[in-house]
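Intended use. Records like the one below are meant for learning the mapping from a protein sequence to its folded structure. Do not use them to infer anything beyond what is encoded.
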Amino acid sequence: MPTNVDQLLTGKLFQVTPVDTIAKAVDIMSSEHISCMLIIDEGQAVGIITERDVMRLIHQKVDTTQSIATVMSSPVLSTSSDTSIYDAYEILKCGDIRHLVVTDYGKVAGVLTHTDLLRAVSMMELMHKKSGVDVMVPGVSRVAPGDQFSDVIALMVERAVTSVVVTHQRRPVGIITERDIPRLVEEHKGVENITVAEVMSSPVKTVELTVSAYDASEMLRLQSIRQLIVVDIEGHLAGIITQTSLLSVFESRYIEHIRTQLSSAKQKLSESVLLNNIMHSEIDTAIVALDCNMVIVSSNPVASKLFSYQETSLSGHTLQNVLIHGHFPALDQERIVKDVMQQESFRRTIVKGNGECTIELEFSAIKSDDELVGYLLMAKDRTEHLKLEEQFRQSQKMESLGTLVGGIAHDFNNMLAGMTGNLYLARSLISDHPAAVNRLEVVEQLGFRAAKMIQQLLTFARKDRVQMKLFGLSSFMQEILQLNSVVVPENIGFHCEISSEELVVIGDETQLQQVIMNLLNNAHDAVWGVKEPQVRLRLMSIGLI
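Structure written out for the chain above:
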């Protein structure tokens, strides 16, 4: 019986590039009767598209002339060619997928499917001891012959089912599978106004409830189909047997496989450098001991929490399953083994799928009498450390910006001092020209306002402090509006209503002045291009109950 996945790989590997169109991939899948298409770039699998993806794209009426890179599933879950068939089954199950990419020294070697695994299952003696009732799925999606084909596609997409059974008076008369969808859409040039009866596969292959699981498996293999409809003694639909349901027999064999490996690994590691007090210490680092097949032999409580197992032990789980369960990306086990042997360690930083957790991993060898007996994994949560580093970098940026702003503000303040001094001298020279004097006074007021803005910049640069004091808000507003009359252009109607009652507040005049200027600028921008624009400003007191 095959033990590793490379012994199950058969047939040609079909692939496209990321720049190829969706239509090209669908055409190949339909003509070659394959369930998935790999997207390969420079020998690496960068994505995958399956029959279920194609059905979803048809339902969503996606333009198939666009590149397949826009719709492919990525990244791709993969495993090495020497992975056992039991571990491969667990990866498929935990990842809720039906296609597993197999690599050989980093290069794509093939795709393992449920069909491949079923070839190994059919040889197991255990299959003879199970009946169809034990492995069938009782909950079957059913439709009527008169239903619309488009509605069937929508139902299969929404329920994520691989097939629907067509029934008449509770008896199966046909079937539609997800593999049929691309071909049927192409043949009928669309899905509109087509009934189920026109496209269903009929008659259907049925078996009775008493059929053995082994016989069902052989029927699927010999007839190259993936579903068998189960009927009761009256011929009514009772359920369906699929490749996935037949693979449930892997459960008991997988448990036996893990127990054997765990027992052997524990014997090898019993005299190793892993001490019980280290594994149960209060350190915040996850410690995991793995055997040579990357199956976990022992771990501390921190590891269980880090990979979302809470207080459950990780013993018996494979490394890839633990990573997938914790929503972390899978690792290339071949690369780990190679780096540990050549460089004595393998280090990697990985990020949780939602980005909320970042951990640093380090693998090293565990040896006994110079013989490799396993691997030691040290994992540490670096999320908070990275956040603090980012805050520190941001603080340094703000400090540098503050220093720059402070220097510019001081230089500008010196220039303003010279300007205001020369304005005073200019007014004394033209005292007999009132209009010119008024203009110079306006310039002087604007200079004072600029000086206050410089004061704000110095406050930002932490070169000065905010000056909180009591002042009358009404008179302050009147003064600000006079100085800022040029902010609102003459083509915009500006109506101002300020309370005659002096409203006393405590605050920083410079800060409040900047707020009012920003409000006026925003109001000006908001009515830009509006016919007969109007801006209204009101300052009123309200009674508090």
